[in-house]
Design a protein that fits this description.
It is elongated and about 65 Å long. It is α+β, with helices and mostly antiparallel strands and 205 residues long. A four-stranded mixed beta sheet has the order 6-5-4-7, sandwiched between helices. The chain has two domains: 70 residues, Arc Repressor Mutant, subunit A (Orthogonal Bundle); 113 residues, 2-Layer Sandwich (Beta Polymerase, domain 2), CATH 3.30.460.10.
Length: 205
Amino acid sequence: MKVHKILDAVFSTRSNIAVLRVISKVNIGLSGREIAKQAGMSAPSSLEALTAMENLNLVKRERGGRDHFFYLNREHYIVEKIISPILNVERKYPDQIYSDIKKGLGRYASSLILFGSTAREEEEIESDLDICVVFKDAISKRKLEKIISDLRIELFKKYGVSFAPYYISEKDFEKRARLKKSPVDDIIKEGKLISGKSIRDIING
């Protein structure tokens, strides 16, 4: 039993957070193997974390034949008041950041495209948030640069994000795409559209 400073036990390891993140998304029991797969962990590490959460009664285990099925104990006070709300906010966190970028730049940008490590979901703490800012003409670019000088500060204050815009005109994007030049070639392969014209529409004019 843990009454005082229970969060020390809940959030003591990345493995604990990883398994809670997986089972919080579903209302059915998942096998230990499936949880390990979705969490990107080894089966033994997953089972160790699930057992630790079971010992706190945050996770329930059902035994069925050879497999054990685990599900979140949503009746637990800590789950209801802390874990579920935190994980829900975490899931919405990327979209909230992109929404603020779209709100700030969408009026003057032809397209806003996420690329780089964040697009691949491989970013580290020191990574930049790479956004390809596609513009139509020089007037649009000047307006975007002015907005971004303030937006960069706001994004860091609000989210701790290091915003790294890559400016390119629609014409140059199409040209670099045709010649398969970096970084446009990478943007085409891994980019995720935040706002505006699709990559295909930019290339096709």
